[in-house]
Every structure is written in C-alpha cells, then in structure tokens.
C-alpha cells in the first residue's frame, strides 16, 4: 500500500521542515507526525522514501531519505535503505556502518547547504 496523495503532500512538507531545521527523525516518529495508523504505516513510508530516493538520484540531488532514521541504528536509515541504495547504484555500503554513517552525514550536509 502506498501513501495517498494527501499523505504524500504531508510527507513532503514534514521532510522539507526536517531539512530546514537540520533535524533527523525516526521512521516511527515520522509516521506519528503524519498521523498514519495501521500495521503497514512504516512500510508505506519506506515505499515513499524509496520513490523519492530514485527521484533524487535521477535529478542529481542529495538523498532526502537520509533525514529519516531507524531506532535500531540511531542517526542512520535502516539497513534496507542502504541495500536499496546499493541496488540502484547510489552507494555500496557492504554492511559497513561506518561507511553508512559517512554517506548519511555527507548527504545531510549537501541537503543543508541547499536550504
């Protein structure tokens, strides 16, 4: 299941606010801010994040999805995000959290410098 058009717009607004305030947020807190409910709420966010990651990559922009992190790896997106990045040829993390942290921080810095 995907986000509705209204949810998509809400997600974009929240994400833009996070970038402007230089504040990362967990997937679950993002779901709360969006007022999403139900057992698939995180999966719906992940699907949307993958979509915008592809858009950002194709446009040569920093990856906005780096602003959303997993509570299991505070400050870093989930391992699934990094696997997706490897799959689309953006970043081959090879299960290395140190590399993932450097990649995430560099993406965030590029996002901050454009706002």
Based on secondary structure, the structural category is mainly alpha
N to C succession of SSEs? HEHHEHH
Strand count, sense and closure of the main sheet? 2 strands, parallel
Task: Estimate what percentage of residues fall within beta strands.
Answer: under 5%
Give me the number of helical elements: 5
Helical fraction = 55-70%
Computed over alpha carbons, the radius of gyration is 13 Å
Uncertain regions: pLDDT < 50 for 5+ in a row? none
Tally of individual domains: 1
Number of strands: 2
Q: Record the strand order, biggest sheet.
A: 1-2
Describe the overall structure.
The N and C termini lie far apart (about 30 Å). The protein has one domain. It has five helices and two strands; from the N terminus they run H-E-H-H-E-H-H. With about 120 residues, it is mainly alpha-helical.
Question: Which terms summarize this structure?
Answer:
2 strands, two-stranded parallel ribbon, mainly alpha, 115 residues, 5 helices
Brief characterization of the structure:
The protein has 115 residues and is mainly α.
Which helices and strands, and how do they pair?
Blueprint: H1 5-20, E1 25-26, H2 27-34, H3 41-59, E2 68-69, H4 79-87, H5 97-113
Parallel strand pairs: 1-2
